[in-house]
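Case study.
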Amino acid sequence: MATDHSERLRVFTRALANREESSDAAAGVAGKPHQTKIQVRDMSFYYGTSRALESINIDFPEHYITAIIGPSGCGKSTLLRTLNRMSDLVPHTRIEGQILLDGEDLTAPSVDVVDVRRRVGMVFQRPNPFPKSIYDNLVFGPRLLGMNDRAALDAIVERSLRGAALWDEVKDKLHTSGLALSGGQQQRLCIARAMAIEPEVILMDEPASALDPIATFKIEELMQSLRERYTIIIVTHNMQQAARVSDYTAFMSWQAVAALSYNAPSAERDGSSANVTKSQAGRIIEFGSTRQIFTTPKEKETEDYITGRFG
Amino acid sequence: MSVDSRVKFPSRALWYTQWARRFKHGDVFFRALTILASALVLLVTLAIGYELWQNSALPRAKFGLEFLTGIDWNPVTNVFGALPYIYGTLLTSFIAVLIAVPIGLGIAIFLAELAPDWLRQPLGFLVELLAAVPSVVYGLWALYVLVPTLIQPTAKLLNAQLSFLPIFEGPVYGPSRLAASLVLSIMILPTISSVSRDVFLAIPRAQREAALALGATQWETISQVLVPYGLSGILGAVILGLGRALGETIAVTMVIGNNPDLTASILHPGYTMASIIANEFSEATSDLYRQALIEIGLVLFIITLFLNLIARLLVWRVARRVPTEARV
Amino acid sequence: MTTGSFPQTRGANYRRRKFVNGVMLTLTGVATLLAVFPLVWIISYVVLEGGRFLSLDFFTQLPTPVGVPGGGVANAILGSAMVVGIACVIAMPISLVAAFYVTDHPNTPLGVAVRFGTDVLAGIPSIVMGIFAYTVVVLPQRHFSAFSGGFALAIIMTPIVLRTTEEMLKLVPRNLREGALALGAPEWKTSLQVLLPAALNGVVTGVMLGIARVAGEAAPMIFTAFGNPFFSTDPNQPIATLPHTIYVYAISPYKDWHDKAWTTALVLIAFVLGLNVLARVLTARQAHQWSGN
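After joint prediction, the assembly is written out as follows.
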C-alpha cells in the first residue's frame, strides 16, 4: 500500500511538472492577478426533500482552470449544473444560498436563466451536436441573439473553430453534418459551439470521458489555450486529468457527511434524524491549488482519495 | 481431424435428442402454431388487396385508367368515373390535416415538454379518448350540433367576407366540405398528437440540454432543435393522420352533403370515396356497379397502404436515430 | 470579457424572444384545451340528449315504427354483442398467438414483416375491411349475415389486440421467462403458464381496446350485418348493431328517431368509453407491476 501511495504521488508530480515545462501560460498560479469569477456562498441543493449538496463555499478564480474531483455520486456534476442553472431542468429541485457571478446572484428569482446560460456556457459528457451542419451548429447561438449578418456569422464560425483547434480539420466541409465527425471532433465542435456566443465561463462536465486517449489529449491541450479568454470549470473522475489540466482543484465527497450534517441547523427542519444520517449530501472537503491538493493535501480524506485508499 | 469428428458426433446426437425432446414436450407444435398465426396476419393483409383486385375486374377492363379521371357516375347508363369522389376525399382530408397539424403538434409539445407530471397522464388520456369516440357518434353530433351552431355561422361569415376567393364561393350550405373537414380534423387529432408526442419523447435529453446551455429559450429549443430533429417522425404522424382522414366513412357521409361535384368551394356539399361506398354499396344491383364501388375501395386501399408504409418508415427512422447518436 | 460589439441577451431582441417564448408555450396549452373541448362537448351533449329517453324499456324492447313512442334497441344490443363476440372468437386466438411470436422473435424476417404488416393493417380504412368481408363471406353465401359482420370486425380488431398484447408481453421481465426455461419448462409451457398469466392484464387490455374499437364501427356493418328490425340470434341472418342503428336513425327524417339515435349513442358511448377507461386502469397497473419493485 505504501509503495502504491508514493508511486501515485510521483505520477501526479510528474504530470504537474510536465505541464509546467510545456506551457508557460500555466506557469504560476500565484503569478497572475487573481480575481474571483464565481463565488458560491453557503449553497445547498435539494432534489425534492433530499439534500444533494451541503453548504458549498468555493471561489472560482477568473481565467484559471478549476477542476472538481471526487468519488462518483458526490455531487460534482450537480454543483457544476447549478452554476448555469441547468439544474433547473430536473423538476422539484431547489437551490439555497448564493451563487455570485461577478457579484450578481444567479439564484435570485429575478435572474433570467437564459441570460445566465449565455454568459456561462457548458460542454457535456457526451458530445451532443445538433443533427445539422457544422456551420449551423456554430451559428445556432449567435442567431438566437439576433445576428443575421452573413459575414459576421462566417467570422464567428472561423474564430470559434480556430479557438477549438478544429478549423483546419473541417474548414472544407462546414456544410456537412456535425454528426459525421469523429467523437473527439464532435466534442471540440461542441466546445466551439459554446465559444461562439462568447461566454465568460465554460463549464465542462467530464468532457473527455467518452473519448479515446488521443482525442482526450487534444481536448486537454485545447483547454490550456482557452484559459486565456475564459474561466473554465471542469468536472472529472480522472485525477490525472485534473492534475494535468487544472490550476485549482476542489475535492468533493459525500462520505462522513452523515455525522456532520446530523447537527446542522437545516437538518432539524427535515425532522427525522434517521433520515439525515442516511443522507449523502455532497460537500467540498478541500480546495486549493492543484499542486497543493495533489502533493500536500491538508485533509486526510483528500489524501486517501488521491492515493487510491478511498472507498 | 480426429478431434473434430469426436466433437461433431455427440453434438449431432445431441441435436437429435433435443428435437426429439422438443417434439415430446410440444414445442415444435407450439412454435408452428405461433408461426402459422403470424403468417395468417400477414396473409390477410395480402388477401385484402387480392380480393379487391379480383372483384374489380369488370370496371378495370371496361374503363381502364379513365375510371380515375371520369367525372360521370351513372348506374343507369353503366358509366362510372370516380374523379369527383377522389377529389372530394383529397380536398376534405387535406383541409382536415391543415387544421389538425398545428393543434396536434401543440398538444404533443405540451404533453411531452411542458405539462407537469401530474397533468401529463390524465390530459394525454383525454386526448386519446377522442380516438375512442365512435365515428357514428361524431357524425350524429356534427350533423345536429356542430353544423348548426358552428359551421353554418362560420360558413356565412367566410362567404360574406371572402366570397371573391373560389374556395369560399356561395351558396352556403350546412352540410358541406367544411363541415366534413372540421369533423375529420377532430378525429385525426389524437393520431397526430400521440404519435408526435412519442417522437418528442424519443429525442435524447442531450439535445435539449445543448440548446438550453447555449441560452435558447424553451420555445427556441423546441422549434429550432427538437422539431427539426424529429421532423421525419412528425411527418410520419401527419401522414398517419392523413391516412385516417382519407378512409373515414360514417361521420363524413353524415355531414358532407353527398353531392358529387368538382367546384372549389369548401362551403359546398361534396362527396368522398368512402361515402359513396357506404351510400350505394348495398343497393348496387348490377355486377359492374358493385365492382365499380369495389374499385373505389381498391383505390382507397392502395392510397392508405402507400401512406401507411411511408409513415411507418418515417416514424421508425426517428426511433432508430437515437442509438446512432448514443454510439459516439 | 465579452467584446463590445457582441450582441447581449438584454435589449429589444431579447424582449421579443421572451415574448415569443411566452406566447408559443401558452398556445400549446391552448391547443390541448382545444382538443379536450370537443370531447367534453360531445359527451355532455350525448348524455343530456340521450338521457332524456333512457329507460329500462330501451334495453329490453324492440324498435317501434316511426311515430309510435317507446320501444328500444334490445335487438341491436344483442346483435352488437353477437357480432363483436364472433369477431373476438376469430381474432383473439390468432392475435394472441401471433403476439407471442412477435415478442419472442422481433427481429426475424417474419417477426419484422408481421409487425410491419400489423401497422399497415391498422391503417386500412374499416370500410375497406367491410368490402373484404363482403367479397369473401357475403358474395359466396349470397346473403348478408351476422357472421360476415363479425368477420369484418375481426380483421379490424386483430392489429389492435396484437400490438397491445405485444407491448404488454414485452414488459414482462426477461428473467421471469428465463427462470421458467431454466427449470426445464418447455417453451410453450413457459409462454402459456408463465408469460400469459404474468401479462394477463395486458392481454385483457388489448382485447378490451379491440372490442371498444370495433363495437363502434358502423361503416362495414352497412353491407355485412346489414341490420334487422327483429331479434335474431342466427349468425347466418342479417342482424342489427348499435352503431348501424344510430346511423339509420340519425339520417332519417323523423324527429323521434333522432331522439332514439341520441339515446342509442349514449348506450354505445358509455360502453366504449367505459372499456377504454378500464383498459387504462389495467395498463397502469401492469406497468406498475414490473416497475414498482
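Observations recorded in class. The two ends of chain A are 14 Å apart (CA to CA). DSSP finds 14 helices and ten strands in chain A. We will return to this complex in the next lecture.
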